[in-house]
Amino acid sequence: LRGSLEVQSNLSSPDDAPPPGSVWVEASMLNALNAQVGQNMSLGSREFLIGGILDKELDKGLGSGMKVRI
Predict the structure, then answer these.
(1) DSSP codes joined into one string, 20-44
(2) How many helices (H) and strands (E) does the chain have?
(3) Bridge partners, residue 24, by sequence
(4) Which of 30, 47, 53, 58 has a CA-to-CA distance to 6 between 20 and 30 Å?
(5) What is the pLDDT of residues 43-58, one digit of tens each?
């Protein structure tokens, strides 16, 4: 994969991954969920803090649908 990962987030995180217990999502997912950064969202049986918005991803353009990075 080529490129870089860019995220709008107030949470510091090593290794291009969200901190434990949080997720980064695409802006389109926030709109679809009517949610904001700082709120919680459910994925399966778990709750996660929405910690940032994915602005640019390494694999953008591969596949379709809204993305979440855990």
Answers:
(1) TTEEEEEHHHHHHHT--TTSEEEET
(2) 1, 5
(3) 52, 69
(4) 47
(5) 999 999 998 888 765 5
